[in-house]
């Protein structure tokens, strides 16, 4: 078996959602939580030092698919491309929910919270591969953040890194993917963040005399209470459909 896989360059991804839209269009998937490739946006840090991140995440068709072991026969790894697939003849919603819990990346999606909800996932676009075509998400990525091919070829081209900050370690499942993390921000023009906060705290000289500052202390502006920012981390396993939609809000 030749293992095929994906390449994802986080620095190129702008979270436009084109991959999700194209996937839904190609497979006639209605709007909603059945997203075979999910686009996440989240931020880390506190003002004025905040960094935004984007991750486009299909099924990574792992070389050691722990989901298959947990699926009670409902899933299998096919032999031509190494794709991890659902067996519709054996699949039950209960078995696939167990498989999704085992999957480090939460790749199986459900169209509702009902116990008998329809489950589905990325198929590696096997129908397109059989025609000599690239997966639809790769073809339609405007910024070329995605690539696809035999994993060995991708490793020669891009390296062997299978881990991305904030994603689970690839040691367990060995995802068929090569990641390139975004490069850290650099200051083009050096500036002192603490001085910027102090200046922002003061009102204009034209303000009414005796007017209070915008905030009492720097901590009021630079320390964010838990729960204030709802996408301040990458969440891959969702409690319900509503939470999945909330964390992937911009790609539908």
Strand content: 15-25%
Please state how the strands of the largest beta sheet are arranged side by side. 8-1-9
Q: Which class of secondary structure composition applies to the elements?
A: alpha+beta
Order of helices and strands: EHEEHEEHEEHHEHEHHH
How many strands, what sense, and barrel or not for the largest sheet?
3 strands, mixed
Question: What characteristic shape results from the CA principal axes?
Answer: elongated
Number of domains: 1
Residue-averaged pLDDT, rounded? 92
CATH class bucket: Alpha Beta
Tally of DSSP helical segments: 9
Outline the low-pLDDT stretches: none
The span between the termini is 35 Å
Number of strands: 9
CATH third-level topology:
Alpha-Beta Plaits
Rg, Å, rounded? 22 Å
Helical content (DSSP H or I, runs of 4+): 10-25%
CATH architecture: 2-Layer Sandwich
Q: How do you describe this structure in short?
A:
With 252 residues, the protein is of the alpha+beta class.
Chart the SSEs and their pairings.
Layout lengths: L3 E6 L8 H9 L11 E9 L2 E9 L8 H5 L4 E3 L6 E3 L6 H10 L6 E2 L8 E2 L5 H4 L6 H4 L6 E5 H8 L18 E4 L12 H9 L16 H5 L18 H7 L5
Parallel strand pairs: 1-9
Antiparallel strand pairs: 1-8, 2-3, 4-5, 6-7
Your description of this structure?
- By secondary structure, the chain is α+β, with helices and mostly antiparallel strands.
- The protein has one domain (4-185, 227-251): Alpha-Beta Plaits (2-Layer Sandwich).
- It has nine helices and nine strands.
- It has helices at residues 18-26, 66-70, 93-102, 126-129, 136-139, 151-158, 193-201, 218-222, 241-247; strands spanning 4-9, 38-46, 49-57, 75-77, 84-86, 109-110, 119-120, 146-150, 177-180.
- The strands form four sheets. A three-stranded mixed sheet has the order 8-1-9. A two-stranded antiparallel sheet has the order 2-3. It has a two-stranded antiparallel ribbon with strand order 4-5.
- The longest helix has 10 residues, at 93-102.
- It is elongated and about 75 Å long.
- The model has no long low-confidence stretch (mean pLDDT 92).
């Amino acid at each position: 078996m030749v293992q095929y896989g994906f390449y994802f360059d986080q620095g190129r991804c702008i979270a436009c959602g084109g991959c999700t839209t194209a996937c839904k269009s190609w497979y006639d998937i209605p709007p909603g939580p059945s997203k075979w490739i999910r686009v996440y946006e989240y931020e880390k840090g506190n003002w004025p030092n905040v960094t935004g991140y984007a991750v486009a995440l299909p099924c990574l068709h792992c070389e050691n698919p722990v989901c298959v072991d947990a699926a009670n026969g409902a899933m299998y790894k096919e032999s031509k491309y190494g794709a991890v697939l659902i067996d519709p003849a054996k699949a039950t919603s209960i078995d696939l929910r167990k498989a999704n819990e085992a999957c480090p990346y939460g790749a199986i999606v459900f169209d509702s919270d009902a116990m008998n909800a329809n489950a589905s996932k990325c198929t590696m676009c096997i129908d397109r591969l059989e025609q000599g075509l690239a997966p639809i998400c790769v073809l339609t990525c405007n910024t070329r953040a995605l690539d696809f091919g035999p994993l060995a070829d991708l490793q020669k081209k891009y390296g062997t890194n299978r881990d991305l900050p904030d994603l689970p370690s690839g040691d367990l499942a060995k995802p068929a993917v090569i990641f390139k993390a975004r490069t850290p921000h650099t200051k083009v023009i050096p500036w002192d963040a603490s001085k910027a906060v102090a200046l922002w705290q003061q009102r204009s000289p034209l303000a009414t005399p005796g007017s209070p500052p915008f905030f009492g202390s720097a901590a009021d502006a630079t320390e964010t209470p838990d729960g204030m920012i709802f996408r301040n981390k990458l969440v891959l396993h969702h409690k319900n459909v509503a939470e999945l939609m909330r964390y992937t809000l911009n790609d539908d």
